[in-house]
Amino acid sequence: MMGFFQQYQKNSLFRACLFLLLGILIFINPGDTLRWIFILLAAYFFFMGIISLLGTWRTRDMGTSYAPGVMYLVVGLIILFFGQFFVSLVPFIVGIFVVIEGITSFGQAREFNRLGNSSGALMVYSILLIILGIVLILNPFGTILVLFQIFGLSLMVMGVVLLINYFRWRKLT
């Protein structure tokens, strides 16, 4: 077990610096960072597509198909041109469900009030859900950017904790 921790510590300084750098980039400029992630992901699929097509072209007499390579290229194009659109659909769809839940909770709160069991907390909760859902629906990409910034902040915290643990470990060994 000690070997695992020693191996883990060997590259923890690298991971800490990587987490801090990525976290700062994401937190300061989430939109551009997200675009670069899409570009890198698309480049990966383009690379895989070209490798697959070249491999198929070299072994064409073996009955291999060009389909996987073409599919990689198509996925790369979809990610490159429509990645942000698909990502922004997630909060939009979640927003619809949150609004429905808020309306349902609001109905329950009104029913509780009608039956004499006042539920002000449920009423406030349902109104907050409806507002949150509307924000998600009306500004899905902005919502993604805020969540992405929170992710960047958590990466920075992880990087700081890794740095602290790295130096503590070095002090002990």
UniProtKB/TrEMBL annotation:
<keyword id="KW-0812">Transmembrane</keyword>
<feature type="transmembrane region" description="Helical">
    <location>
        <begin position="144"/>
        <end position="167"/>
    </location>
</feature>
<feature type="transmembrane region" description="Helical">
    <location>
        <begin position="34"/>
        <end position="54"/>
    </location>
</feature>
<feature type="transmembrane region" description="Helical">
    <location>
        <begin position="89"/>
        <end position="107"/>
    </location>
</feature>
<feature type="transmembrane region" description="Helical">
    <location>
        <begin position="119"/>
        <end position="138"/>
    </location>
</feature>
<dbReference type="InterPro" id="IPR005325">
    <property type="entry name" value="DUF308_memb"/>
</dbReference>
<dbReference type="GO" id="GO:0005886">
    <property type="term" value="C:plasma membrane"/>
</dbReference>
<dbReference type="InterPro" id="IPR052712">
    <property type="entry name" value="Acid_resist_chaperone_HdeD"/>
</dbReference>
<keyword id="KW-1133">Transmembrane helix</keyword>
<feature type="transmembrane region" description="Helical">
    <location>
        <begin position="12"/>
        <end position="28"/>
    </location>
</feature>
<dbReference type="Pfam" id="PF03729">
    <property type="entry name" value="DUF308"/>
</dbReference>
<keyword id="KW-0472">Membrane</keyword>
<feature type="transmembrane region" description="Helical">
    <location>
        <begin position="66"/>
        <end position="83"/>
    </location>
</feature>
<protein>
    <recommendedName>
        <fullName>Acid-resistance membrane protein</fullName>
    </recommendedName>
</protein>
